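Lecture notes, part 5. Sequence design as translation. It can be helpful to think of inverse folding as translation between two languages: the language of shapes and the language of residues. The source text, in structure tokens, appears below.
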């Protein structure tokens, strides 16, 4: 069992001794270690069972502090950090040699973010190194949005979970890098692409890699996945009780089928097997509840989970990216 606590001084001490600690952020909980200490990074990969080719995001308390570990800060990023001095935005920056190759899986850029979470910001303020932190879940499983989610899966493998309550955003950060000098989205996330385009006053190109490392294309398209097979309902808006009927549930009895809905219930399935993301069609609320909903359904005695895709714009696109990766691959 890990100690679940709000004591940042204890977290600080453990991190300075090159231990790993789960930390809250506004997106999801991270599993953190000293970016500069290879020893800590190895512990992160081992606890998560994460392949070494999947690079980590470094967290710092202020973009200014990146000068300690990045070579330069491309000016294309300046409007973004002005708009988001902290938040669900990760930028790819050319790394200095003090960032071990392990943190970037050998890539020349390090992913950096300033999380918008008071407890973790005060912890980062007290440290003289950034914290590398992937999401605090076993590799491939649903990301954690509470300290209890972390404890349930990694409690045996880590000493300490800093408890910052439930994550407000609920899905991982939006990742932006430069491709031929142009700002490019590498992962859809907690800041909607339309919001970024408004700030920049231009369209952004999107280059989502199937795998997490651009150099290992196609290896990792299954992610964020529950243990039960999850099937997507693709047509939005769907006609409740029409497109999905007891007949086309095939061999499955409705009492063994779960449903993750965007805003409406599915009449053919018992209510207790259903989790609705936002009855008010609110993307922020839906994002915040997404991973908790998947966990809720994964823990019920069900054979399969059906999931309805969100309307495909704003944060709905990031939600859909997660659902597609969580879905069952034949
Ligand atoms: O919101 C978040 O970003 C959360 C919280 C904890 O900050 N972290 C997170 O980390 O989602 P993780 O490990 O689950 O996802 C990190 C992803 C990698 O899988 C990869 O896609 C991308 O960030 N990444 C990291 N470093 C990169 C690099 N140098 N080049 C390209 N992509 C990189
Ligand atoms: Mg992750």
């Amino acid at each position: 069992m890990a100690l679940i606590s709000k004591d940042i001084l204890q977290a600080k001490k453990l991190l300075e001794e090159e231990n790993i600690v789960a930390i809250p952020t506004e997106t999801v909980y991270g599993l953190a270690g000293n970016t500069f200490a290879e020893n800590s990074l190895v512990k992160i990969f081992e606890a998560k069972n994460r392949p070494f080719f999947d690079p980590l995001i470094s967290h710092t308390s202020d973009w200014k502090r990146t000068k300690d570990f990045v070579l330069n800060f491309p000016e294309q990023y300046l409007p973004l950090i002005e708009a988001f001095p902290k938040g669900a935005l990760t930028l790819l920056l050319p790394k200095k040699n003090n960032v071990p190759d392990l943190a970037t899986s050998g890539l020349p850029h390090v992913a950096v973010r300033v999380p918008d979470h008071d407890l973790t910001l005060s912890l980062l303020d007290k440290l003289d190194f950034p914290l590398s932190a992937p999401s605090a879940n076993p590799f491939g499983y649903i990301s954690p949005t509470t300290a209890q989610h972390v404890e349930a899966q990694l409690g045996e493998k880590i000493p300490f979970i800093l408890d910052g309550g439930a994550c407000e955003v609920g899905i991982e950060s939006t990742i932006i890098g430069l491709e031929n000098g142009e700002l490019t989205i590498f992962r859809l996330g907690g800041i909607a692409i339309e919001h970024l385009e408004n700030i920049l006053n231009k369209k952004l190109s999107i280059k989502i890699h199937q795998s997490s490392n651009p150099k290992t294309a196609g290896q990792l398209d299954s992610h964020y996945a529950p243990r039960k097979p999850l099937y997507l309902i693709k047509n939005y808006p769907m006609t409740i009780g029409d497109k999905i009927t007891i007949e086309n549930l095939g061999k499955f009895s409705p009492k063994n089928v779960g449903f993750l809905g965007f805003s409406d219930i599915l009449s053919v399935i018992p209510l207790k097997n259903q989790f609705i993301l936002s009855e008010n069609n609110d993307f922020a609320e839906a994002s915040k509840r997404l991973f908790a909903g998947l966990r809720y359904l994964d823990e019920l005695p069900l054979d399969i989970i059906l999931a309805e895709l969100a309307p495909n714009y704003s944060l709905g696109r990031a939600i859909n990216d997660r659902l597609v990766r969580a879905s069952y691959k034949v």
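The translated text above is only one of many valid answers, since several sequences can fold into similar shapes. Residues 25, 27-28, 30, 54-57, 88, 90, 92, 104, 107, 109-111, 113, 115, 133-135, 172-173, 175, 186-187, 212, 214 surround threonylcarbamoyladenylate (ligand 1) (CB under 6 Å).
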